[in-house]
Write a structure and sequence with these properties.
3-stranded antiparallel beta sheet; about 55% helix; globular
Length: about 375
Amino acid sequence: MTGYELCDHVLRSRSWAALDDSWRARQEPGSRWLAPASRELGHVLQGLNPPEHTRHRRSVGNLFDRTTVTRLRGPVTAIANGLLDTLDAHLHEDGIADFSALVSEEMTMAVMGHWIGIPAADHAIVRHHSHAHGQAQELLPSPSQMVAADAGALGMREYFTGLVRDRRAHLGDDVLSGWIRTWDELEPDRERADEAVYFLVMFIVGAALETTSMLLSNLVLVLDQHPAQRNWLREHPEEVPRAVEEILRFDSPVHVTTRVAREDTVVAGTHVRADELVHLLIASANRDPAAVPEPDVFDIRRSGRSLSHLAFGGGVHYCIGAGLARLQAQVLLDALLRRFPTLRVAGPPQWEPRVAFRRLKSLDVVAR
Protein backbone atom coordinates (compact mmCIF):
# COMPACT_ATOMS: atom_id res chain seq x y z
CA MET A 1 0.00 0.00 0.00
CA THR A 2 1.53 3.27 -1.11
CA GLY A 3 -1.09 6.01 -0.74
CA TYR A 4 -1.46 8.27 2.28
CA GLU A 5 -5.22 7.85 2.74
CA LEU A 6 -5.10 4.07 2.44
CA CYS A 7 -2.11 3.66 4.78
CA ASP A 8 -3.68 6.04 7.29
CA HIS A 9 -6.94 4.07 7.16
CA VAL A 10 -5.24 0.71 7.74
CA LEU A 11 -3.17 2.08 10.63
CA ARG A 12 -6.31 3.36 12.35
CA SER A 13 -8.76 0.57 11.51
CA ARG A 14 -9.56 -2.25 13.93
CA SER A 15 -10.01 -4.50 10.87
CA TRP A 16 -6.24 -4.72 10.59
CA ALA A 17 -4.10 -6.13 13.36
CA ALA A 18 -0.53 -6.03 14.55
CA LEU A 19 1.50 -9.21 14.16
CA ASP A 20 0.98 -10.58 17.66
CA ASP A 21 2.41 -13.79 19.03
CA SER A 22 -0.70 -15.83 18.25
CA TRP A 23 -0.43 -14.91 14.56
CA ARG A 24 3.28 -15.69 14.52
CA ALA A 25 2.67 -19.05 16.19
CA ARG A 26 0.33 -20.08 13.34
CA GLN A 27 3.00 -19.69 10.67
CA GLU A 28 4.75 -22.57 8.95
CA PRO A 29 7.60 -24.35 10.77
CA GLY A 30 10.93 -22.81 9.83
CA SER A 31 9.32 -19.46 9.07
CA ARG A 32 11.15 -16.28 10.08
CA TRP A 33 8.09 -15.45 12.20
CA LEU A 34 8.88 -18.34 14.54
CA ALA A 35 12.47 -17.26 15.17
CA PRO A 36 13.18 -16.20 18.79
CA ALA A 37 13.79 -12.58 17.79
CA SER A 38 10.47 -12.44 15.98
CA ARG A 39 8.52 -14.12 18.77
CA GLU A 40 9.85 -11.53 21.24
CA LEU A 41 8.40 -8.76 19.05
CA GLY A 42 5.00 -10.44 19.25
CA HIS A 43 4.85 -9.55 22.97
CA VAL A 44 5.87 -5.87 22.91
CA LEU A 45 3.46 -2.96 22.53
CA GLN A 46 3.76 -2.76 18.75
CA GLY A 47 2.94 -6.46 18.52
CA LEU A 48 -0.11 -6.47 20.79
CA ASN A 49 -3.74 -6.01 19.83
CA PRO A 50 -6.70 -4.84 21.95
CA PRO A 51 -7.69 -5.64 24.61
CA GLU A 52 -4.18 -6.74 25.66
CA HIS A 53 -2.60 -3.73 23.96
CA THR A 54 -5.01 -1.42 25.79
CA ARG A 55 -3.99 -2.88 29.14
CA HIS A 56 -0.28 -2.52 28.50
CA ARG A 57 -0.59 0.93 26.92
CA ARG A 58 -2.57 2.28 29.88
CA SER A 59 0.03 0.94 32.29
CA VAL A 60 2.61 3.46 31.06
CA GLY A 61 0.25 6.44 31.06
CA ASN A 62 0.94 9.59 29.06
CA LEU A 63 4.70 9.19 28.92
CA PHE A 64 5.69 12.43 27.23
CA ASP A 65 3.10 15.03 28.10
CA ARG A 66 4.01 18.72 28.13
CA THR A 67 5.18 18.63 31.74
CA THR A 68 7.50 15.67 31.16
CA VAL A 69 8.94 17.12 27.95
CA THR A 70 9.59 20.43 29.72
CA ARG A 71 11.37 18.62 32.55
CA LEU A 72 13.52 16.65 30.10
CA ARG A 73 14.53 19.63 27.97
CA GLY A 74 17.37 20.60 30.31
CA PRO A 75 19.02 17.15 30.43
CA VAL A 76 18.49 16.63 26.69
CA THR A 77 20.10 20.01 25.95
CA ALA A 78 23.08 19.19 28.18
CA ILE A 79 23.54 15.83 26.45
CA ALA A 80 23.35 17.43 23.00
CA ASN A 81 25.87 20.14 23.85
CA GLY A 82 28.28 17.63 25.38
CA LEU A 83 28.20 15.46 22.26
CA LEU A 84 28.63 18.49 20.01
CA ASP A 85 31.71 19.40 22.07
CA THR A 86 33.07 15.95 21.22
CA LEU A 87 32.18 16.44 17.56
CA ASP A 88 33.94 19.80 17.56
CA ALA A 89 37.08 18.27 19.06
CA HIS A 90 37.18 15.54 16.40
CA LEU A 91 36.68 18.07 13.61
CA HIS A 92 39.53 20.22 14.91
CA GLU A 93 41.85 17.24 15.34
CA ASP A 94 41.04 15.20 12.21
CA GLY A 95 39.18 17.62 9.95
CA ILE A 96 36.43 15.04 9.50
CA ALA A 97 34.10 13.17 11.87
CA ASP A 98 31.35 10.56 11.77
CA PHE A 99 28.23 12.42 12.88
CA SER A 100 26.17 9.25 13.14
CA ALA A 101 28.58 7.52 15.52
CA LEU A 102 29.59 10.55 17.58
CA VAL A 103 26.25 12.29 17.94
CA SER A 104 23.12 10.52 16.65
CA GLU A 105 23.76 7.08 18.13
CA GLU A 106 25.22 8.42 21.35
CA MET A 107 22.52 11.04 21.97
CA THR A 108 19.60 8.66 21.62
CA MET A 109 21.19 6.14 23.99
CA ALA A 110 22.25 8.81 26.48
CA VAL A 111 18.77 10.32 26.62
CA MET A 112 17.10 6.93 27.10
CA GLY A 113 19.75 6.01 29.67
CA HIS A 114 19.09 9.20 31.63
CA TRP A 115 15.33 8.72 31.52
CA ILE A 116 15.21 4.98 32.33
CA GLY A 117 18.28 4.86 34.54
CA ILE A 118 20.69 2.77 32.44
CA PRO A 119 24.33 3.14 33.56
CA ALA A 120 26.57 4.86 31.02
CA ALA A 121 28.93 1.88 31.12
CA ASP A 122 26.12 -0.27 29.68
CA HIS A 123 25.11 2.02 26.81
CA ALA A 124 27.33 0.41 24.17
CA ILE A 125 26.15 -3.15 24.85
CA VAL A 126 22.48 -2.15 24.93
CA ARG A 127 22.86 -0.32 21.63
CA HIS A 128 24.65 -3.32 20.09
CA HIS A 129 21.93 -5.77 21.12
CA SER A 130 19.16 -3.42 20.02
CA HIS A 131 20.56 -2.90 16.53
CA ALA A 132 21.03 -6.63 16.11
CA HIS A 133 17.50 -7.41 17.30
CA GLY A 134 16.07 -4.71 15.06
CA GLN A 135 16.99 -6.72 11.96
CA ALA A 136 14.06 -9.05 12.72
CA GLN A 137 11.75 -6.20 11.68
CA GLU A 138 13.17 -5.99 8.18
CA LEU A 139 10.88 -6.52 5.19
CA LEU A 140 12.82 -9.53 3.90
CA PRO A 141 15.61 -10.30 6.37
CA SER A 142 18.39 -12.58 5.21
CA PRO A 143 19.31 -15.74 7.14
CA SER A 144 22.42 -14.00 8.53
CA GLN A 145 20.33 -11.04 9.66
CA MET A 146 17.97 -13.38 11.51
CA VAL A 147 20.89 -15.14 13.22
CA ALA A 148 22.15 -11.75 14.40
CA ALA A 149 18.62 -10.75 15.42
CA ASP A 150 18.21 -13.88 17.56
CA ALA A 151 21.48 -13.15 19.34
CA GLY A 152 20.39 -9.54 19.85
CA ALA A 153 17.04 -10.62 21.26
CA LEU A 154 18.78 -12.89 23.76
CA GLY A 155 21.11 -10.08 24.76
CA MET A 156 18.21 -7.65 25.21
CA ARG A 157 16.32 -10.16 27.36
CA GLU A 158 19.31 -10.90 29.56
CA TYR A 159 20.11 -7.24 30.06
CA PHE A 160 16.63 -5.86 30.67
CA THR A 161 15.36 -8.70 32.85
CA GLY A 162 18.43 -8.06 34.98
CA LEU A 163 17.71 -4.34 35.01
CA VAL A 164 14.11 -4.96 36.13
CA ARG A 165 15.29 -7.37 38.81
CA ASP A 166 17.86 -4.90 40.15
CA ARG A 167 15.41 -2.01 40.09
CA ARG A 168 12.81 -4.04 41.96
CA ALA A 169 15.38 -4.58 44.70
CA HIS A 170 16.06 -0.82 44.85
CA LEU A 171 12.77 0.90 44.00
CA GLY A 172 12.96 4.67 43.64
CA ASP A 173 10.95 7.46 42.07
CA ASP A 174 12.17 6.78 38.51
CA VAL A 175 10.09 5.70 35.51
CA LEU A 176 11.04 2.02 35.66
CA SER A 177 10.24 1.79 39.37
CA GLY A 178 6.86 3.32 38.60
CA TRP A 179 6.11 0.66 36.00
CA ILE A 180 7.06 -2.07 38.46
CA ARG A 181 4.64 -0.67 41.04
CA THR A 182 1.89 -0.33 38.43
CA TRP A 183 2.23 -3.91 37.25
CA ASP A 184 2.30 -5.20 40.81
CA GLU A 185 -1.22 -3.75 41.09
CA LEU A 186 -2.34 -5.08 37.70
CA GLU A 187 -0.84 -8.55 37.93
CA PRO A 188 -0.75 -10.56 41.20
CA ASP A 189 1.76 -13.05 39.75
CA ARG A 190 5.16 -11.41 40.42
CA GLU A 191 6.90 -13.30 37.60
CA ARG A 192 4.29 -12.25 35.04
CA ALA A 193 4.37 -8.68 36.30
CA ASP A 194 8.13 -8.48 35.85
CA GLU A 195 7.80 -10.05 32.40
CA ALA A 196 5.35 -7.30 31.40
CA VAL A 197 7.74 -4.62 32.66
CA TYR A 198 10.60 -6.27 30.78
CA PHE A 199 8.69 -6.11 27.50
CA LEU A 200 7.79 -2.47 28.11
CA VAL A 201 11.28 -1.22 28.87
CA MET A 202 12.95 -3.38 26.21
CA PHE A 203 10.54 -2.15 23.57
CA ILE A 204 10.64 1.54 24.47
CA VAL A 205 14.44 1.67 24.59
CA GLY A 206 14.86 -0.48 21.48
CA ALA A 207 12.29 1.45 19.45
CA ALA A 208 14.03 4.74 20.25
CA LEU A 209 17.46 3.40 19.29
CA GLU A 210 16.14 2.05 15.98
CA THR A 211 14.36 5.24 14.90
CA THR A 212 15.39 8.44 16.68
CA SER A 213 19.09 8.06 15.85
CA MET A 214 18.16 8.00 12.16
CA LEU A 215 16.03 11.12 12.58
CA LEU A 216 18.95 12.95 14.20
CA SER A 217 21.27 12.06 11.33
CA ASN A 218 18.63 13.15 8.84
CA LEU A 219 18.73 16.64 10.35
CA VAL A 220 22.21 16.98 8.87
CA LEU A 221 21.75 14.85 5.77
CA VAL A 222 18.53 16.42 4.44
CA LEU A 223 19.48 20.01 5.21
CA ASP A 224 22.88 19.47 3.57
CA GLN A 225 20.98 18.59 0.39
CA HIS A 226 19.00 21.83 0.66
CA PRO A 227 21.48 24.57 1.62
CA ALA A 228 19.18 27.49 0.80
CA GLN A 229 16.58 26.22 3.27
CA ARG A 230 19.24 25.50 5.86
CA ASN A 231 20.41 29.11 5.57
CA TRP A 232 16.83 30.38 5.84
CA LEU A 233 16.27 28.26 8.94
CA ARG A 234 19.40 29.67 10.55
CA GLU A 235 17.83 33.13 10.20
CA HIS A 236 14.48 31.85 11.50
CA PRO A 237 15.33 29.46 14.38
CA GLU A 238 11.77 29.73 15.69
CA GLU A 239 10.82 27.47 12.77
CA VAL A 240 12.94 24.55 13.98
CA PRO A 241 9.91 22.51 15.14
CA ARG A 242 8.29 22.86 11.72
CA ALA A 243 11.57 21.94 10.02
CA VAL A 244 11.72 18.73 12.08
CA GLU A 245 8.21 17.79 10.93
CA GLU A 246 9.13 18.34 7.29
CA ILE A 247 12.26 16.21 7.69
CA LEU A 248 10.08 13.48 9.19
CA ARG A 249 7.73 13.72 6.21
CA PHE A 250 10.44 13.98 3.57
CA ASP A 251 12.50 11.00 4.80
CA SER A 252 11.02 9.16 7.76
CA PRO A 253 13.21 6.72 9.73
CA VAL A 254 10.64 3.93 9.26
CA HIS A 255 9.91 3.30 5.58
CA VAL A 256 7.73 0.19 5.90
CA THR A 257 5.37 -1.21 8.52
CA THR A 258 3.14 -4.27 8.34
CA ARG A 259 -0.39 -5.27 9.33
CA VAL A 260 -2.42 -8.48 9.06
CA ALA A 261 -6.05 -8.82 7.93
CA ARG A 262 -8.43 -9.97 10.65
CA GLU A 263 -10.90 -11.31 8.09
CA ASP A 264 -11.33 -11.71 4.33
CA THR A 265 -11.66 -8.28 2.76
CA VAL A 266 -11.22 -6.22 -0.39
CA VAL A 267 -8.94 -3.21 -0.20
CA ALA A 268 -8.34 -0.87 -3.13
CA GLY A 269 -9.80 -3.54 -5.43
CA THR A 270 -7.48 -6.25 -4.14
CA HIS A 271 -8.73 -9.35 -2.32
CA VAL A 272 -6.90 -9.99 0.95
CA ARG A 273 -7.59 -13.16 2.93
CA ALA A 274 -7.73 -13.36 6.70
CA ASP A 275 -4.24 -13.71 8.22
CA GLU A 276 -2.54 -12.33 5.10
CA LEU A 277 -0.10 -9.45 5.42
CA VAL A 278 -0.17 -6.00 3.91
CA HIS A 279 2.92 -3.81 3.84
CA LEU A 280 2.40 -0.09 4.30
CA LEU A 281 5.02 1.99 2.51
CA ILE A 282 5.17 4.91 4.94
CA ALA A 283 7.87 6.70 2.96
CA SER A 284 5.69 6.57 -0.15
CA ALA A 285 2.53 7.64 1.70
CA ASN A 286 4.36 10.68 3.06
CA ARG A 287 5.03 11.75 -0.52
CA ASP A 288 1.58 11.03 -1.91
CA PRO A 289 0.64 13.90 -4.28
CA ALA A 290 -3.02 13.35 -3.39
CA ALA A 291 -2.22 14.35 0.19
CA VAL A 292 0.78 16.68 -0.08
CA PRO A 293 1.27 19.40 -2.74
CA GLU A 294 4.61 18.98 -4.53
CA PRO A 295 5.50 16.04 -2.27
CA ASP A 296 9.05 15.56 -3.57
CA VAL A 297 9.92 19.17 -2.76
CA PHE A 298 11.53 19.68 0.65
CA ASP A 299 9.94 22.82 2.10
CA ILE A 300 10.28 23.67 5.80
CA ARG A 301 7.71 26.43 5.39
CA ARG A 302 4.88 23.98 4.85
CA SER A 303 1.88 24.27 7.13
CA GLY A 304 -1.44 22.60 7.84
CA ARG A 305 -2.41 19.50 5.88
CA SER A 306 0.64 19.74 3.60
CA LEU A 307 2.83 18.99 6.63
CA SER A 308 0.94 15.81 7.54
CA HIS A 309 2.93 12.59 7.72
CA LEU A 310 2.76 9.04 9.03
CA ALA A 311 6.32 8.89 10.34
CA PHE A 312 5.02 8.03 13.82
CA GLY A 313 2.33 5.66 12.57
CA GLY A 314 -1.31 6.06 13.57
CA GLY A 315 -4.19 4.63 15.56
CA VAL A 316 -3.59 2.68 18.75
CA HIS A 317 0.00 2.00 17.69
CA TYR A 318 0.93 5.66 17.25
CA CYS A 319 4.55 6.00 18.41
CA ILE A 320 4.64 6.14 22.20
CA GLY A 321 7.91 8.08 22.14
CA ALA A 322 7.01 10.69 19.52
CA GLY A 323 7.23 13.54 22.03
CA LEU A 324 10.74 12.59 23.15
CA ALA A 325 11.93 12.06 19.57
CA ARG A 326 10.68 15.51 18.60
CA LEU A 327 12.34 17.07 21.63
CA GLN A 328 15.72 15.53 20.82
CA ALA A 329 15.52 16.57 17.17
CA GLN A 330 14.49 20.13 17.96
CA VAL A 331 17.16 20.61 20.61
CA LEU A 332 19.91 19.15 18.43
CA LEU A 333 18.92 21.05 15.29
CA ASP A 334 18.79 24.34 17.17
CA ALA A 335 22.27 23.72 18.58
CA LEU A 336 23.68 22.67 15.20
CA LEU A 337 22.43 25.81 13.50
CA ARG A 338 24.05 28.00 16.15
CA ARG A 339 27.31 26.16 16.73
CA PHE A 340 28.15 24.67 13.32
CA PRO A 341 27.09 27.08 10.57
CA THR A 342 29.57 25.57 8.09
CA LEU A 343 28.94 21.86 8.83
CA ARG A 344 28.67 19.87 5.61
CA VAL A 345 28.37 16.20 4.65
CA ALA A 346 31.79 15.05 3.45
CA GLY A 347 30.68 12.28 1.10
CA PRO A 348 27.97 9.72 0.35
CA PRO A 349 26.49 8.27 3.55
CA GLN A 350 27.15 4.58 4.20
CA TRP A 351 23.96 2.58 4.79
CA GLU A 352 23.18 -0.68 6.52
CA PRO A 353 21.40 -3.17 4.18
CA ARG A 354 17.95 -2.33 5.50
CA VAL A 355 14.65 -1.31 3.94
CA ALA A 356 12.01 -1.02 6.66
CA PHE A 357 13.98 0.54 9.53
CA ARG A 358 16.75 2.52 7.90
CA ARG A 359 20.11 2.82 9.61
CA LEU A 360 23.39 4.47 8.73
CA LYS A 361 26.80 2.85 9.05
CA SER A 362 28.42 6.28 8.95
CA LEU A 363 27.81 9.91 8.04
CA ASP A 364 31.07 11.79 7.66
CA VAL A 365 30.95 15.56 8.09
CA VAL A 366 33.40 18.46 7.84
CA ALA A 367 33.25 22.07 8.99
CA ARG A 368 34.39 24.24 6.11
